[in-house]
Amino acid sequence: MDFFLNRYRNLTALLVAILAQLGLLAYQIKSGEDVRLIRVWAVTAVTPLARFIEGGRGGLAHFLKNYFLLWNVQEENQRLKADLDRTEMENQYLRAQLSSADRATALAIFQKASQSRTLAARVIGNTTDPNGKAVIVDRGAADGIQKGMAVIKPEGIVGKVIGVFPHAADVLLVTDSSFAAGVVSQKNRVHGTLKGQGQSTVIVDYIQNEETVEPGEWFLTSGDDLVFPRGILVGQATVVRPGKNRKEVYLTPSGAQSGLEDVLIVLDGVHGTITEAPLPSQPVHVLAPPDNDADDRIPPSAEGTSIAPRSVATDLDRSVEHYRAVGEAQNHKYGDKNSSAPNYNMTPENPAQPPSPPPSSPPHP
Amino acid sequence: MSEARGRFRDSAGSAASPKYHWTVIVVVPLAAILFQVYVPRFITDLAYLELPLLVTVYFSLTFRSPVAGLLYGASVGLAQDSLARPQHPLGMYGVVKTLVGFFTAFVSQRFDVRNSSIRAILAFFFYFFHEFFYWVLSRALLGELVDFDPARTLVLAALNGAVAAPLFLLLDKLKTTE
């Protein structure tokens, strides 16, 4: 045995190393569990360095951008001085300032306008495997990040968190072949499942050939996957054609078009609305204001009063408000089965007065 | 352990022992992995540069010991695995780079590997071997339906070989003595 080991020392070492790693692989594949400790060590070791490099790069880029911006302004200033038009120069400068509103500003605006609670994060690296599309962001468990959280940008969805480390997290991009999300088309309300393909385009699966999807139609998240809040931009249909079993719909994901630097991680998602208002080509996607119907979802209290204060927007709202006031003036409790029906012919100001018409009468034919 | 020593034997048969400070042996592969993690974000074409592989090939050629080569390859591969996405199990790069480290060191015992052309050819060959074996493992062990395009891989292998020649010369400068 000793002779064998000495004679074939190299081969023995190779076999041991390979078998040990194959054992590790088999354990992970069979149990479905990750060797988390090694990953945590590796990512924790790399994160500070990557953060430092990213900070340095960002600072340098910012400096260079400002330098050249100032340089341009100076050149422009000289030209404008030659024209003796100070007002025009100021306009030019203000326009330049507006157009140079960078991604971070857009992100901040979007974050403020979004109903979901989000956390800004910076992409500090890619993962190393060639077949996957995933990035590493500089927020982790210490910031409240959990596996499965949605990652978005003002332009659209980016991906979802698939691995969390103390100060970093892995984000699976929408273009990865293992990515999936529930989507709905904006115009025709066709539901489907978005799937990454490992390429720049993604496919929307499970759409029947009979359903209508138009090229150029926008898709938004449907909220069915319980990861992405409903109503976030996903992408625009570039190719729509009937397939053998189901319709083939290819999208260009809007969140993956421009470079990934800053993203938002959705800590607490709030479903938005899907409107038919035009969405494309707006630099900052701002969700529609919350609908008044949301108030209807307030659960009834213990006393049984389910009517909550609400804003009055339509004739129907005004009528409901009128009758509610009439009932309350007669001490009627809505939702209470023991309470007798109020006299709706009375006025809320004086229940003894003769009837007055409701504030808005229904339209006559 | 302040210095690592590898035994060189040139074509004339004379023995030479290059030394590297241990920080070089540790920091260079880490820098290569960090490069792979960070730089392709901005220059996507550089994603095809397998610097961790080239570094493994270089140090395995230098060590000229198959055991040292395979241990070095396994370490670099596992470090690379641990920075991949969670669906990518640990050991995929580890196994492939273990084999690369072993066979590179094995080859280095039989050729004069200080010649830049031979180094470039070895980098070319081992890049192809690395990609092919990784593809085999992906299909056989993980069941992933990944495409393998030999023509494209050969082109990328040539690019990596072209990068390897100056990179290895640069790494030669980090030797403390020979």
- What is the CA-atom radius of gyration of chain B, in angstroms? 16 Å
Characterize the biggest β-sheet of chain B.
Answer: 3 strands, antiparallel
Q: Tell me, briefly, the overall form of chain A.
A: extended
Find the structural class of chain A using helix and strand composition: alpha+beta
Overall mean confidence score, pLDDT of chain B: 84
Mean pLDDT of chain A, as a whole number?
A: 76
Using a beta-carbon cutoff below 8 angstroms, give the protein chain pair with the largest interface and the number of residues from each chain.
A-B, 45 and 42 residues
Could you give the distance between the termini of chain B?
18 Å
Q: Main beta sheet of chain A: strand number and arrangement?
A: 6 strands, antiparallel, barrel
**How much beta of chain B, percentage-wise?**
5-15%
Strand order of the largest sheet of chain A: 1-2-5-4-3-12
Low-confidence regions of chain A: 281-289, 292-309, 358-365
Silhouette of chain B: globular
Unreliable stretches of chain B, pLDDT < 50, 5 or more residues? 1-15
- Work out the helix count of chain A: 6
Distance between the termini of chain A: 104 Å
- The number of helices of chain B is 6
Please count the beta strands of chain B (DSSP E, at least 2 residues each).
5
Q: Write down how many β-strands of chain A occur, each being a DSSP E stretch of 2 or more residues.
A: 12
What is the count of structural domains of chain B?
1
Oligomeric state of this protein: heterodimer
